[in-house]
């Protein structure tokens, strides 16, 4: 017993990073000699952690009982963290004593657990506090900066870039000093969409890693592979697919040590050549490439992207019914309505599966019926709006969007209000208003959105506040200008280095409240510098610029050949026509304009015709009439007077 303990003590005094197996063997011997030796048991746990045998370390802690567990809180929490049991790791760390929690090792581990559990704001706060304090180990500051940059990249990927400090929002020259910082700064640029700068930083990271003298050949290869995978992705996003494909050929996927990185690399490699490939073969390659086992796990945004890729491949393979069922189930299970990018993306995929990848008017008919079943599906709504715009019908699109927004307003719940004024929906509304030239509606919408987000404690809509302020400044209304000033005031409170916000604040309050803007005037560019290259005399001489008249619409028809105009010929006077029996000097018949039957010379032919002529008033016999009174005083009627002759009776 004494010899085993002495051997263990001597090993611990002379231990280096290469002899953990020997330390473990000595610790096991000491424990066999005395099972209650806490120091030997703890040594065994540490040796197992050094050998990356995390499951064995957890079993060793469990075998040691409560006393060993109290002594090995940090070790157990670290083993749980490395095993992927993040929730249990955080709970174990919380059970530590107050003095232990405030120590730097415990806070380091807490920050790492928060990072892997995707609680990136907590991880960033922990790293900031560690950097601000004194008393760190040699080289610890560099590690903290590397971890903080990685956390900042994750904040950007998850749409929380507004939480970054002002000095951290853009990469600096200091990040080019080490390949780790250059790589993490490049990841931040990728998440922000600054791909050209990301490419520069990744090339720098690769050069620094290859030139490093502190790494062995195998270590260099392990560090270079993730850099190359990320660079190939950036080249693809920049449209340089041939360069990306060539870079992927130099990457041996089986040599990538981390399974999540290997899965991402395989996905990117499949995506580059998927355009002309059989979709069923692509589907098979994708399913085999993205399988992870054990504690290997992708981040949430990576999982979301891979899921969308899976749905896209399934659509090409015409698995419409299965996609429609799975996406509908996920949409209905989520809180609705929601501004989640993932759920909105599922709405678009569901619409594509429902219409069997049709487009245009045919697809519009089908998705409109689908919207009646899911009236709060924002992804489906935006899909319909896009189809309307493609069909050049912004009016129905705007009516549909306004009805949806009105339904959200009548709900009057805080969550619905956040969705109602989500920056993306506000941007779509403003774009549709702009298509119809409704400038007042644009300002009203932006003013309402600005008022809503300024009442929130979080500053997640800074881009919306900036655009709202710029638009409201164009108004001649004092109320709109005051709202613009409040928006810029909120932005300046977040960062006084935001030159656009400072300029907007000065423009808003220059007339109304000079004292509020006086302290910001020195930070603005002097007017003399802005007008240094302007020639006032030349501008005055040039006069007021006029807007050119719009060009006449061009026709696709072939223009007619040009013919010279002919001089107008003199109009020929038409010769008067005279009747055949015209005699000069003889008066024309005055009844020539009357119809033939009304002339005095008209003589009808036949017996009946002559009788009708006699009965007419013109030259005929006038019949005598008499008036007879009706019986009972009912009135009187006129009848023809009977003649004196009596009609002879006929023979019987």
Automatic annotation (TrEMBL):
Could you tell me the keywords of this UniProt record? Answer: Coiled coil, Cytoplasm, Endoplasmic reticulum, Ribonucleoprotein, Signal recognition particle
Q: Which GO terms describe its molecular function?
A: 7S RNA binding; ribosome binding
Per its database record, what is this protein's job?
Answer: Component of the signal recognition particle (SRP) complex, a ribonucleoprotein complex that mediates the cotranslational targeting of secretory and membrane proteins to the endoplasmic reticulum (ER).
Its annotated compartments are: Cytoplasm; Endoplasmic reticulum
Q: Where is the composition biased (Basic residues)?
A: 569-579, 602-611
Q: Where is this region: Disordered?
A: 550-625
Start-end of Basic and acidic residues biased regions: 558-568, 580-601
Domain of life according to the entry: Eukaryota
Q: Does the keyword Ribonucleoprotein apply?
A: yes
Q: Name one GO cellular component term.
A: endoplasmic reticulum
Instruction: State the organism named in the record.
Output: Daldinia eschscholtzii
What is the name of the protein in this document? Signal recognition particle subunit SRP72
Alphabetized Gene3D superfamilies for the sequence: Tetratricopeptide repeat domain
Q: Which GO terms describe its biological process?
A: SRP-dependent cotranslational protein targeting to membrane
Positions of the Signal recognition particle SRP72 subunit RNA-binding domain: 555-604
């Amino acid at each position: 017993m004494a010899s085993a303990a002495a051997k263990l003590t001597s090993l611990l005094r002379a231990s280096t990073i290469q002899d953990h197996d020997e330390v473990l063997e000595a610790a096991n011997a000491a424990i066999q000699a005395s099972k209650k030796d806490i120091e030997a048991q703890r040594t065994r746990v540490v040796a197992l952690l050094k050998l990356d045998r995390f499951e064995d370390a957890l079993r060793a802690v469990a075998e040691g009982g409560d006393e060993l567990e109290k002594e090995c809180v940090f070790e157990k929490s670290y083993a749980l963290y490395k095993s992927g049991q993040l929730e249990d790791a955080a709970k174990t760390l919380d059970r530590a004593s107050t003095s232990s929690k405030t120590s730097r090792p415990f806070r380091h581990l807490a920050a790492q657990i928060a990072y892997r559990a995707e609680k990136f704001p907590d991880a960033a706060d922990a790293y900031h506090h560690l950097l601000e304090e004194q008393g760190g180990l040699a080289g610890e500051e560099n590690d903290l900066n590397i971890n903080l940059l990685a956390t900042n990249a994750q904040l950007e990927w998850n749409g929380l870039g507004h939480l970054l400090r002002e000095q951290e929002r853009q990469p600096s020259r200091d990040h080019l000093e080490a390949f780790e910082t250059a790589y993490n700064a490049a990841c931040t640029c990728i998440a922000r969409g600054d791909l050209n700068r990301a490419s520069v930083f990744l090339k720098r990271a690769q050069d620094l890693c290859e030139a490093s003298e502190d790494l062995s050949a195998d270590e260099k290869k392990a560090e270079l592979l993730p850099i190359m995978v990320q660079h190939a992705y950036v080249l693809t996003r920049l449209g340089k697919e041939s360069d990306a494909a060539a870079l992927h050929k130099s990457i041996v996927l089986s040599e990538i040590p981390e399974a999540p990185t290997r899965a991402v690399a395989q996905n990117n490699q499949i995506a580059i050549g998927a355009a002309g490939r059989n979709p069923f073969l692509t589907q098979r390659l994708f399913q085999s490439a993205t399988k992870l086992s054990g504690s290997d796990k992708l981040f949430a945004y990576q999982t979301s992207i891979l899921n969308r890729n899976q749905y896209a491949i399934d659509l090409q393979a015409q698995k419409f019914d299965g996609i429609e069922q799975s996406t509908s189930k996920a949409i209905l299970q989520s809180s609705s309505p929601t501004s989640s990018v993932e759920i909105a993306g599922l709405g678009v995929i569901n619409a594509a599966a429902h219409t069997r990848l049709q487009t245009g008017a045919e697809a519009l008919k089908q998705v409109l019926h689908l919207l009646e079943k899911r009236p709060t599906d924002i992804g489906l709504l935006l899909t319909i709006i896009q189809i309307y715009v493609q069909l050049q019908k912004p009016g129905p699109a705007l009516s549909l969007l306004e009805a949806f927004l009105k339904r959200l307003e009548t709900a009057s719940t805080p969550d619905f209000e956040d969705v109602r004024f989500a920056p993306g929906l506000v941007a779509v509304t403003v774009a549709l208003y702009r298509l119809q030239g409704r400038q007042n509606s644009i300002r009203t919408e932006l003013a309402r959105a600005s008022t809503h987000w300024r009442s929130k404690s979080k500053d997640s809509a800074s881009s919306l506040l900036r655009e709202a302020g710029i638009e409201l400044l164009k108004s001649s209304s004092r109320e709109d200008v005051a709202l613009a000033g409040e928006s810029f005031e909120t932005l300046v409170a977040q960062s006084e280095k935001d030159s656009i916000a400072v300029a907007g604040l000065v423009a808003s309050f220059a007339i109304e409240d000079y004292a509020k803007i006086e302290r910001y005037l020195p930070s603005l560019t002097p007017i003399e510098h802005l007008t240094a290259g302007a020639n006032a005399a030349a501008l005055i001489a040039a006069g007021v610029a006029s807007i050119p008249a719009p060009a006449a619409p061009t026709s696709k028809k072939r223009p007619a050949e040009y013919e010279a105009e002919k001089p107008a010929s003199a109009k020929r006077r038409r010769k008067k026509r005279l009747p055949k029996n015209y005699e000069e000097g003889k008066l024309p018949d005055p009844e020539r304009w009357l119809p033939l039957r009304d002339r005095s010379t008209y003589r009808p032919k036949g017996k009946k015709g002559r009788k009708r002529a006699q009965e007419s008033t013109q030259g005929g016999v006038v019949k005598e009439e008499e008036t007879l009174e009706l019986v009972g005083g009912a009135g009187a009627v006129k009848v023809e007077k009977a003649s004196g002759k009596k009609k002879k009776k006929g023979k019987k």
